[in-house]
Amino acid sequence: MSVRTALTDIQLPQSKSIRLRFVEESDADFILSLRLDSKYNKYLSPVSRDIDKQKEWIRAYKKLESDGSEYYFIIERHDGIRCGTVRMYDFKDNSFSWGSWILNEDKPRTAALETALLIYKAGFEILGFDRSHFEVNRNNTRVISFHSRLGAEKVSEDNENFYFIFTSETYQKCSGEFHYLLEK
């Protein structure tokens, strides 16, 4: 994957109440606490409870990060309190996907919208993609509604998921409408 600018080469974007930072091995316990919690894992793939396996997975992920083919972020409030995770991956055909999105009870009120805006800012403004493609479990109605309200277009579906695209043009409209959240 040849991305115009690697995210590791720049300061990651921040928003009004959160920032993204790259995952570190020391985040393994936090990630497991989110992924094993039934409040947050209903629509996620299962993971092992083994902390050493999680650390090993993170070490492997750091290699993907260093070559610019995928990015895994911890979402933090500006006071340093971790409140979630999100990933960017599947960079192809001038498009990127994002997921593994979890926000816990420590999140600021507008964290979901701010996270989406930061991911789109990184994908469109920094990495230069034209669109984003992603899937949402068809039973995850809150997330489907969220993406639809932002302007994502459902392009297909199967028995498990709805598949969406979100364009850089749609992001430009959203970032204009919600500019006050992107200003830090």
Describe the structure.
- Helix content is 35%, strand content 28%.
- The chain has helices spanning 28-35, 51-66, 111-126, 141-150, 168-177, 179-182, and strands at residues 18-22, 71-77, 82-92, 95-103, 131-137, 153-157, 161-167.
- It has a 7-stranded mixed sheet with strand order 1-2-3-4-5-7-6, with helices on both faces.
- Strand 4 (95-103), helix 3 and strand 5 (131-137) form a beta-alpha-beta unit.
- The mean pLDDT is 90.
List its salient traits:
184 residues, alpha+beta, Aminopeptidase, seven-stranded mixed sheet, 28% strand
Outline:
Helices cover 35% and strands 28% of the residues. It contains 6 helices and 7 strands, in the order E-H-H-E-E-E-H-E-H-E-E-H-H.
Enumerate the strands of the largest sheet in spatial order, edge to edge or round the barrel: 1-2-3-4-5-7-6
Structural class: alpha+beta
Cα-based radius of gyration, to the nearest Å:
16 Å
| Oligomeric organization of the protein chains | single chain
Topology:
Layout: E1 18-22, H1 28-35, H2 51-66, E2 71-77, E3 82-92, E4 95-103, H3 111-126, E5 131-137, H4 141-150, E6 153-157, E7 161-167, H5 168-177, H6 179-182
Parallel strand pairs: 4-5
Antiparallel strand pairs: 1-2, 2-3, 3-4, 5-7, 6-7
